[in-house]
Known about the structure:
By secondary structure, this protein is of the alpha/beta class. The chain contains 16 helices and 17 strands.
Amino acid sequence: MADHELKVQLLLTGNEIMSGDTVDSNSALIARRLAELAITVHRKVTVGDDIELLQAELAAMADDADLLIVNGGLGPTIDDLTAEVLARVTGVDTEEHPRALAHLQDWCGRRRLTLNAANRKQAMLPAGADIIDNPIGSAVGFEMMVGKCRVICTPGVPGELAAMLDIIIADLARRTERPLERSILRLQTFGLGESTAQQMISDGIGDWPGEVELGFRAGAPQMEIKLSINSAGAMAARQRCREQLEQLFGDHIIGEGDMTLAARVLDLLRERGATLTTAESCTGGLIASMLTRIPGSSDSFHAGFVTYANSIKHAVLGVDEQVLAREGAVSEPVVRQMALGAMERSGADYAIAVSGIAGPDGGTPDKPVGTVWLAWGSRDELHSCCLRWPVERTLFQTMVAAAGLDMIRRVLLGLDTEPRYFSQRRV
């Protein structure tokens, strides 16, 4: 099998995806993992839990592909139809697979659960199917040949799919007749939009080499810049591109791979033997949540305070009641007192404090929705700034939390330059 010649298609199943109740992130994950082998997805189709439609679509796609990955429909409920559909397409019966049953028994035993009839349904697979281990969940994956097409069936639970893809990608790599040297360098940035980044590259790098493929993946709060090459001989060209990007974007680059703002801040704190605390109002603990998602965060993050009401800002952090009454909660003196109070009570070396108007209501002509005051730094060097993000509530909270982390990152790195987004967002 030569992976550069593979025609790959994806079949996503489930009424919840068709209705919008579940957002499809699995196909993006599959495509990213396949890209590691320079394999491109040619076509993607989503079908609801209708056995006749699924059978017709699976048969048609298998007839037109070398590799078909089916995602979803492996669970214990009546609407999980993938095994039965593949059995119909291949003209075989479903039967209880001993290895799938043993997996189920072990999975239930480790959780002290009784293997019931609903769960046992997950061991009923098309006769002759080969098992793909599921390191996390109860339902194994499986595969069969449909004519010339290899059909791989995977679970819809994202964590289970991610674990199973490690096995599938490794197997695809082994089967490759002539391995490609596909290499993707991913740079994580904050404070840059796709159009801004593209224009800066177009203006600043006029001789971008053809052997280095440039790509972007926008998200909230970070944007990823991808530099992909297909041979070891292009490594030097990519390194030059990276150096040029670092000159263009400078301290907006957080790191490589899956690096997040929170992880970078924790790394910097750990290097310095320092600790951080947070005092949050409008973000409701999101900054603390971003930090504590990172394993080992307790080394540098010991306490965070969510002080939403003014009375709690006073009672918990010691914010002056007269200042609150005179200036309002969304003000420079209040957010600075929040930061100082959090450091005093936690004993932390650094703090991030935020207070803003997330909306959709609560704004005034002087302080419209999207206004936020941030304070960051140490007791001896505490900075503050008012920014405005006039976006919907959840995105506002995400970007404010990220901005707080970004500013403390800059303090820890000793950077005295303001980020580009300050000129766009500063009030």
